[in-house]
Amino acid sequence: MALDTTAPVISAQNLDLVFQTADAPVHALSDVSLDIAPGEFVSFIGPSGCGKTTFLRCVAGLEQPTGGTLTVNGMTPEEARQARAYGYVFQAAGLYPWRTISGNIKLPLEIMGYSKADQQARVSSVLELVDLSEFGAKYPWQLSGGMQQRASIARALAFDADILLMDEPFGALDEIVRDHLNEQLLALWARTGKTIGFVTHSIPEAVYLSTKIVVMSPRPGRITDVIDSPLQKDRPLEIRETPKFLEIAHRVREGLRAGHLDD
């Protein structure tokens, strides 16, 4: 049977999530509906505590919604996790200091039972993808923060999942390094064709990277705007100075302001 390339990779319908706490229930997500198509680069932007990361964790099966429906590749998030449908990149690189970069990338492959030959082939391939081929034998402390994050991305790519979930992976880096990694991430996305969900606090980063920008309100997290970007996929950094880029950034900013006013 042929794969349906038109069906959403991620589909949320009327998603709610309420955390029960000692003080009072916390309404983290409210009536979130969103479809993400194969190969899209979707950024989630909003104020702290608006549910951006919570939504990503729901997709990954790390949080359980309390209402609505959510499917990943037509499966429940738990089934998708068991099927290794996604790689996840956290805010911190999370590399084990006693393992080399290659050893860190191999770890999930070892846990999943890949053969040693397959592990080595996959490690070599993803190190080349993130331009770290010469650093596999180094330890995390021997790499810059930006290089460590690239190694973390390589680890998430190692088992070749179709979906890459990224939770503010460049938030702690300086602007110059962040710009460079944004360029590299776009090039990586172009080469692999993966579907990417990306959480950020940066309006320029969201506009530069995305084919779709999801603007979220303060808690309870709601979607205030979904912007399909008209920018071409091949984007030099200089595109950030163009009228079209600034127009999209303005719409994102207005969506964020509207969310605050509605709260």
UniProtKB/TrEMBL annotation:
Among the GO molecular function terms of this UniProt record, one is: ATP hydrolysis activity
**4Fe-4S as UniProt keyword:** no
Q: Which residue ranges does the record assign to the ABC transporter domain? A: 12-239
Going by the entry's taxonomy, the superkingdom of the source organism is recorded as Bacteria
Instruction: Answer whether the UniProt record assigns the keyword Transport to this protein.
Output: yes
Q: Which SUPFAM superfamilies match?
A: P-loop containing nucleoside triphosphate hydrolases
InterPro entries named in the record: AAA+_ATPase, ABC_transporter-like_ATP-bd, ABC_transporter-like_CS, ABC_transporter_ATP-bind, P-loop_NTPase
Keywords on this record?
ATP-binding, Nucleotide-binding, Transport
Family the entry assigns: Belongs to the ABC transporter superfamily.
Please identify the protein, giving its name as recorded: NitT/TauT family transport system ATP-binding protein
Organism, per UniProt?
Litoreibacter ponti
